[in-house]
Amino acid sequence: MAGTGTGDGTVGWDEGGEWHTAGWRSESGARPPRRVAVADDRMAADIAYKLVCEGTALLWRGDYHGARQLLAALGRRVDRKPPKQGATPRESFHLYRQARSRRARVLGMLLVPLETAPGGSYTVPLRRAPEVGEACAEAYGPSSGPVGALTLVSLRELQGVIGAHEWRRKGVPVEALDGARVHPFHGVFSPVRGEYVDLVARAPLPPAPDGGPGRLVAFDIGTGTGVLAAVLARRGVGRVTATDLGERALACARENLTRLGAADVVDVVRADLYPDEAAGRADIVVCNPPWLPAKPTSVLEQAVYDPDSRMLRGFLDGLAEHLTPAGEGWLILSDLAEHLGLRPRDELLGWIAGAGLVVAGRLEARPRHGRATDPAAPLHAARAAETTALWRLRRADTA
Q1: Could you tell me the pTM of the whole model?
Q2: 73 and 189 co-located in one domain
Q3: Which of 122, 138, 167 is the last residue of a domain?
Q4: Quick one: 347 and 233 in the same domain?
Q5: Are 227 and 182 in contact (CB under 8 A)?
Q6: Are residues 16 and 95 located together in one domain of the fold?
Q7: Residues 21, 201: Cα–Cα separation, whole Å
Q8: Which whole-number Å values give the CA distances from 291 to 301, 303, 312, 339, 386, in the listed order?
Q9: pLDDT tens digits, residue range 351-372?
Q10: pLDDT tens profile 131-146
Q11: Which parts of 194-348 are beta strand (E)?
């Protein structure tokens, strides 16, 4: 039997002739499904695919591993129709994004229940379900409902939450930190693409006042995990102010910097881009903004997609007034947007000049991720040509 979303953050459905309701949970901001049907291991994948494509979500009541198998089967059916190729790289990118959005929407229609356990923890009340209490608490915080209360979540999101917990538990080794590990929180971009970290590790430091890097002051704008602030501290920079707007990122950065022994050098503060006037001016201002001017569809995508290049332009527009006369802004940016026709190089150079800045130099690194070398990967031609650069920017009035 099918049920309907109520429109107020809850979902209702008919099961065995009785009406049930549960809360709705979505980190990506997806709306509650309007129609819900109960499914279990007896449902054929073709029938399930037809239902979800028609807009009916499936609430799984069978074996947890059966749900995982069904999700994989749904994914194979979605992928039978690859994204169309456009007449231009820009058009191909937008068609690719549309296809990815449809894929996420279809796969997000397979739901599993989360039940509130004693102490505000979570369990999945299905056979052979994994322990999810710690992972869900990291992503969602403690449950505020009474013991036994249900919320529904897409299995795909829950798998992401479990995977993020494993990343946080194991950490990511960072070569620029001599192999020390950085532990990303759920929704905070992981430094698995190490080329941007390596660029900060090898960029020449600007002249230090009165000699010695220990006198240098740096800002890390949009710190995320805190990895770039840690690299600056490891290089001997005397004081670093690391900013971010998200509370989860701030907590992540503080934990990592404490773990890496850099908490006495780095001050982590909440700010939209630059810290307040009390922080003064900096000799180094580093920023690794999202590199594609498009709308993100999830929390994690906010590290990749920057609508209208808001963060990039905000960083550039405020840089000159936050730099010391001999200071440098280090803009770390992939040129993938250029190869996709989303942001021409001349537009970026125009923003730099318009902000009262000049380019003092560039360091480049080739990406090492698999999509850059896989001819079958989407948008391969653009990815194969991609370069990540550290732009050394100085104030035009003192250059």
Answers
A1: 0.90
A2: no
A3: 167
A4: yes
A5: yes
A6: yes
A7: 53
A8: 11, 8, 8, 12, 11
A9: 999 999 999 999 999 887 666 5
A10: 999 999 999 888 888 9
A11: 217-221, 239-244, 266-270, 282-287, 323-334
